[in-house]
Amino acid sequence: METISRPQRWSVPYADERIGSEMDWEIAGKLLQGTLRDLSEDSDRFPRDLSLADILRYDTRLVRFREGEMVIRQGDYGDSAFVIVSGSVNVLLNSLPPRALGHRESERPGVFKTLARVLRKKSPFPEVRKKFRQPDAEEGGGQIVHLQDFSEFLVAGSSDQIDPDTIDTMSAKGEQEGEVFGEIAALSRTPRTATVLAAEDDTLLLEIRWQGLRDIRKFSPQWKKMIDDRYCRTSLATHLRNAQFTRHLSRKRRLVDSMGDMVSELDLVAKQTRFYSYGEFTWQSSFKQMAGEGSSGEGEPVIVRQGSIASDLILIRSGFVRVTRRYNHGEKTVAYLGKGQTFGLVELFHNYREKYNGGKGKPFPYQHTLRAVGYVDTLAIPAPVVESYIIPKLGKSEVQDLEAEIEELKKDENAPVFNLEAKADGKLLEFFVEQRAINGTAAMFIDLDRCTRCDDCIRACAATHDGNPRFNRIGPDELQLQFTHACMHCVDPVCMIGCPTGAIHRDPNGNQVVINEFTCIGCSTCADNCPYDNIQMVEIRDGKGDFLPGTEKNENNEYVRARPQEEPVRKATKCDLCIDQLTGPACYNACPHDALVRADMANPDSFLKWLNKR
Question: What is the b/e burial string over 252-276, where b = at least 16 CB atoms within 10 angstroms of the residue's CB?
Fold first, then answer.
């Protein structure tokens, strides 16, 4: 008998992984005849060991929602998309207030508040909280947010539904049966751009996790076209518009495309741009394993290889890439690139000049290898498009910079392009990439030669957090530079994926990753997801030092203190970058020897100056 091995990810169906009902085959048949008809027409294109039927069985689940119940929350990092099977949903065009999303209210720190916090008498016990009321955990299907303190938007007597009568004031638009939503955020791991609520009772949604969505997009041309077209309409033009190399392109619709429509130069470039993804979406798991084994990232997917034909200009849409160059019998890391940065323009510019200006030199292949670090989304603009619309419009200073880089490459074939070269020791650069420190906007580094172990940084941190330090002065080191265990407020905050209440989120004012302790239910999802082990789960106490057992509902549906024998309430804690302090991070300000720094790895100039003083 012929057998087919099941992919490892299918050892646990999606329906067993989260709350919801497993895909019923009768419903699946109806979906393929109706809502998913386009997909069923492509079923023969799927390989035998990755059939459409298996994807529907193992990578999807059916979830029912009540009217007003939240399906997705603006700002969350989701990993799934939704298809409306029956019923409808409302997309809120205006943002809900922070409390309605489970977020903390953002306040700008003032002088008196800062002084009061420093001078306030500290408890002799760790992790003391004055409030003990604890929200319920999830119940039933879907992502349920707890809104006890936001009564003006709630259905009477409910803590997880928004009153439908208030939706009109939020400027909602409706999505009907057969519509797909959430797919761009799921595939590109970007924050949800809007809050979506069920518009009627018994709304049935098919939720597809990103792995299944990725494979459907790969093997179904119709779904790939649908997703890519939606991305082009909603997001692609924005990403290209913000890129440095497109600033000279006209936004006015003065050209006619092949369909006879009036378009701009930016539109023409966008229509021919391709979208690619590389690496593991859940890269934090493999990174933890790699770090534990002490191995480097040999398994990083290659995006382009040094020596291959320079066929595209590559824009990093999200994530990070490692730039390497052949060195002896191996490869040397010369730089890393992040969101918004480009690769390949030097080669394409050289080849354009040789092609159109009568040059006799050989065309440049790619001069470096580009590898995905973790999970990466890229936009690839074909060389003919770059030659027609981008290179001819470059400014004089940009052309001079490119010519200088070409001359550097001609002098020394082993020289890195100078725009890519990081002004740091080669070993340190390798260290930053291997440890994924490049993900940080506030990574903590300590110069172990300057540090006298006086503990002023830890005491300052504790003083601003009610006696509880929020970082551990330990971590891997290279050349006496320690990468310390403190929340980095990452560019790609994988800790936020899966939080059931939205308690961990970005502060809208400063973009710090913060935790709303009131809506944190102690599930440990964020701590388990953090690849750097920078989130700790703590058991909280009352003012007497006794562990708080949480709350329960009495016969009147009121919150009361639970029995003492119940397990203590746990909360997620981490560095909040002293968001409530006027002076910023206390650890940095307290160091008397300038041995500690908080570094934004996307804008490393000040960090490099600090490094050069060593």
Answer: eeeeeeeeeeebbbbbbbbeebebe
Angle between helices 396-411 and 345-356 (to 10 degrees): 100
- CATH number for 201: 2.60.120.10
Alpha-carbon distance 249 to 251, whole Å?
6
Query: Does 320 reside within a domain?
Result: yes
In this structure, the answer to whether residues 63 and 75 fall within a common structural domain is yes
Report the distance separating Cα 546 and Cα 586, nearest Å: 29
pLDDT of residue 138: 39
193-228: per-residue pLDDT in tens?
Answer: 888 889 899 898 989 888 788 888 888 888 888 887
Res 135 pLDDT > 80: no
CB 376 within 8 A of CB 319: yes
- Token pair for residue 403? 């010519």
Q: Phi and psi at residue 349, in whole multiples of 5°?
A: -65, -45
Quote the longest CA-to-CA distance of the chain: 87
- Taking the CA atoms of residue 600, residue 603, residue 607 and residue 608 in that order, the dihedral angle to the nearest 10 degrees is 150
From the list 366, 374, 189, the residue with the least C-alpha distance to 299 is 374
Question: Sorting pLDDT into bands at 50, 70 and 90, what band is 291?
Answer: low
Residue 425 has pLDDT above 70, yes or no: no
pTM exceeds 0.85: no
Same domain for 471 and 333? no
